[in-house]
Amino acid sequence: MTITPRARDVLISTVCLAGTLEDKLNAAAEAGFGGVEMLEYDLLMSSWSPRRLAAEAAGLGLAVDVYQPFHVETVPAEAFERQLRRAERKFDLLGELGARVLVCCSEKTTEGLDDEERGVAQLRTLAERAHARGIRLAYEAVPWGRVRSHAQAWKLVERADHPALGLCLDSFHVLSLENTSAALAGIPTEKVFHVQLADAPRPNIDVPEWSLHHRLFPGQGSLDVAGFLAHLQATGYDGPVALEVFNDVYQQEDPRHAATDAMRSIRVLTEAITAASGDAPAAPPSASDLPPAPHLNGFAFTELAVDDISGPLLSRALRALGFAHTGQHRSKPVQLWEQGGARVLLNLGPERSVAPATAAISALAVESADPAASMLRAESLLASKLARPRGPHEADIASVATPGGAALFFCDSDAGRTWLTDFDPTGELLPASPLLRDIDHVAITEAIDEFDQSALFFRTVLGLVDGVSGEITAPFGLVRTWSARDRDGRVRVVLSTTPLRRGDWAPAVSSPQYIAFSTDDAIDCARALSERGASILRIPDNYYDDLDARLDLAPGFVDLLREHSVLYHRDEGGAVLHFFTEMVGSRVFFEVVQRIDGYDGFGDRHTVPLRMAAHRRQRMRTLGSPPSSGSGEHRRDYSLAHLTALSLTPPELVDAAASAGYRYVGLRMTKVTTQEPHYPLASDPALMRATKTHLAATGVGVLDIELARMTSGDNPRDFLRFLEAGAELGARHVITQLPDADFSRKTDRFAELCRLAAPLGLTIDLEFPSWTETPNLTEAVRVLRCADQPNAGLLIDVLHFARSGSSIAELRDLPQEWFHYAHVCDAPAETPETTSGLIHTARFERLFPGEGGLDMRGILSALPDGIPYALEIPRAMLVAQVGPKEHARLAIDAARRHLDAVDALV
C-alpha cells in the first residue's frame, strides 16, 4: 500500500524562502507547515542561539527536523580528525535544535582523495559517532562534488553498512540525469533517510541557451576572446570583425549605452592583444588609439552626498571613527574629514539628486601619476566629461561620470596646487595616532541594468584587473558581485546587484553602499572605536561558534573576535580581519579591514548575507524600540496618518513612512468623501497582500485604521469585515466618529462596535470633529461613560480639540487609559466662522507643528507620556509642490524639532 504524506508532514527548507530566519519561520508556520529543514547559513545569520531558535520554532508549531549541509569527502588522516571535531560540534548543535537528521553533502576540494576504501571507512566512523548521539546521517551526491551521482553514493553507503548512515535523495539531481524513477531501482527504502523534492523544466542544450541569452562583450566574461582574435590575426586574417552579442539585458537597454559598452570593449581588446604580442605600434599613435592607464596610487577621497538630516549623522559617525573635520570648502557646502591617508568629503549641496534624509556615494577620486593622461584615456573610452562649477583660483580637477551617476576624479595630491588647497583649514588637528590608515576599497550597489556596464567602465577606464566575483544566496534574494583592483592593490572597487529582483518583498536597506578603511590591527581598532562611541554592527554568536568549529585557531582568539564583532577569513593568499558599522543615512555604512600576508579578497562571501541580516535587525530594532531616556537621544514613536498623504496607496504609504523614519502608519480603508481615493483593503485581496508585504519588508506597523463613521442609518455589524481587515494588518486602534444627534442610539451603537472589536484586539477610539453631532470633549466623554466598554478610547486630534473649545483642565482629569495615541498638527489660531471653513482647514490646510497658533503643547501635556503621535497634516498646496513622500518627511522633521526637544526637557 502506498501512503501519500500529508502536506503538514512535508518540511519546507529555509532555502526556499526570502528574508531573515524570523521571516522564514513565520512564513512557514503561516502557510501551515509543521517543520523545517534548516539551512546552516540561516542559523549563522540569526541572533538567536540554537536553543532559542528551537523554542521560537516550537512556539509557532514548527519542528526543526533536519539540518544541512555538512560537507564531507575522503581526506587524509589529519584532515579527517578535523572533520570529526567539526562533526561533534554539529552533533551538539543538532541536539540543541532537536534535529535528528544531518544531511552530509559530497564536496570536492584540493585536499580530497580518490580512495574508496578510505572513504567507506571514514563514513562508517562518522556514522558511529552520530549513532552514539541518536543522529542519522543522510549522504547526498551532488554534481559538483567528488561523489556526483546517487548511484555512487549508494555504493559507498552500502559498503559502509551502518544503521546510522543512509541516503538523501534529491528529486532534481536524480531526475535531471534520467527523467524516470527507474533510476532508484536497487536502493532499499530503509536506507533512504531524507528526500528533497524539486521540479524544473527540462533544460535546453546549454550552449544555445547560453549563446542566445547570456553573451557579453569581450572582457566582460571569462572566455579568451583576446587569444582567439590574436590567433586569427597571426595567421593573416584581415577580413571583417563584428561584435555579435545576444543578451537579454542589453536588448532592453538604451541602445546608446550598449553601443558605448561595445566600443569600450573592442578598444580594450585591441589594447590587450597589442600588450600580449609585445609588438610596438606600426605607426605613431593616432587620436583613435587608447592611451595606457597611468599608475594609480590609491584613493584621493570619497565623497558622500548628504542633506541637513543625514549630514549631522554622518559627521557624528566619522568623528566616532576617529576622523577630524579639517577643512571647509571656500565656495561650496563641502566638508573635508581626514584620518591618516583616508579622506572623506561630505557634500551638503550635491549636483546629483539624493533621496531626502539619506546619504549616497556621489564621487570617487583616485591618485593618478598623470591625471591628464587618465582623463584622455577616459574620454577615449567614451566617458562623459563633467563640467564642474568652480570659484576663482580653485583647482580644475579632471572628472567623468560613471554609469551609475557618481563622479570619478583624477587627482595628484602631491602637485603644487591641488584640490586640497580649495579647503580652508578649520583649525581641527589630525589625530596623532590614527586608527585608520587609508581607503581600502569602495563598494557600490548598482541596478542590474547598469551592473555589467559599470564593471566594464571601472575596469577599462582605470586599467583595473578583475578580482573576486560571483553570486551569493542572501536573505533577500540572489546577490551578484564583481570586484577589480589596480596591479598594486591600492585601488579596489566592488560592485553588487540583485539580478532577480521580483515583487514587492524587499530588504529594509535599499541599495547599500560602503567605504572600507584599512587598519594595522582590527581588534585593537574595534575596541578603540567602540570606546569612542562608534556603532559597531553586532555579529551573532552562532557565527563564532561555527568559526571555532571549522578552523583550528589560537586559544582565546575566537573570543576576542566575538567580543568586538570582528569577522575572520583566510585562504591560500593570507588572512583578513574586518568589521562593519551600523547603517547611517539609510544606506551608507563603513568597514574596517586588516589584510594579513597579502590577502587580496573581501572576506568570506558568506559574511555578505550575515551582514545583510544584521543590518536588517538594526533597522527593525530602530523602528521597533520605544524611546529610551538612557540613550542620550529622546525619540518618540510617530505614525503617518493617511490623510497626510492620501494620494499614496497603502503600500506606497508604508514605504514613505519607512523612508522618513515613522514607526507606524494609519490606513484610511473607507471612503469619506466622493472626491478622495478609495483603498478597499477589506475587499481587495491583491491590495491587502501587497500592503502586508510592504509592512513585513520595512518593519513599519499599522497603528490605526479609519474610518468607522456611524450616522443614524448605519449598523455596527456592517463594519465587521473592516475590523477584521484591520486586525489582519496588525492594527491596534480604530478611529470612530458619531455624527448622530440621538445620544442613546449613538451610544448603543458605539458600545456594540466596541464589543465587535474586542475579540480582534482592537480599541475603538472616538474622535470629535467640531462640526459633527459629537462636537466636543464633553459630549465624547458622555458617550464613553455610558457605553462603559474596556476597549473604548478617546482620540484627541489637536485641531478638533482646539476648534471645539474643549477644556484642557477637563482633559487632564480623564482616565489615562482612555488615550492610546493622538492626532498632531498645527493651524492658525483663528477659528473659521463657517462649517465649510472648518472642514476645509481640517482636510486641506493644516500646518506643521510650530507653524501655527494652536496650544499644541498645552493639549498634549494633558495626555499620557510616551503615547505615539500620529501626524495628520493634509496640506494640499505643499503636496502639489513637493509630492506626498517629501511632504511626509517634512512633517516628521518639523514634529521632531518642535515636539521632541520639548519632550527631552520634561
Kindly describe this structure.
With 906 residues, the protein is of the alpha/beta class. Helices cover 35% and strands 20% of the residues. Strand 23 and strand 24 form a beta hairpin.
- Distance, first to last CA: 75 Å
Instruction: Kindly report the spatial arrangement of strands forming the biggest sheet.
Output: 13-14-15-12-8-11-10-9-16
Helix content: 25-40%
Shape: globular
Q: Which class do the helix and strand fractions yield?
A: alpha/beta
How many runs of DSSP E, i.e. beta strands? Answer: 34
**What's the tally of helices?**
28
**Residue-averaged pLDDT:** 88
Largest sheet: 9 strands, mixed
Tell me the Rg in angstroms: 32 Å
Strand proportion? 15-25%
Low-confidence parts: 1-7, 203-207, 280-288, 624-634
Identify the notable features of this structure and list them briefly:
single chain, disordered N terminus, alpha/beta, 906 residues, 9-stranded mixed sheet, globular, 28 helices
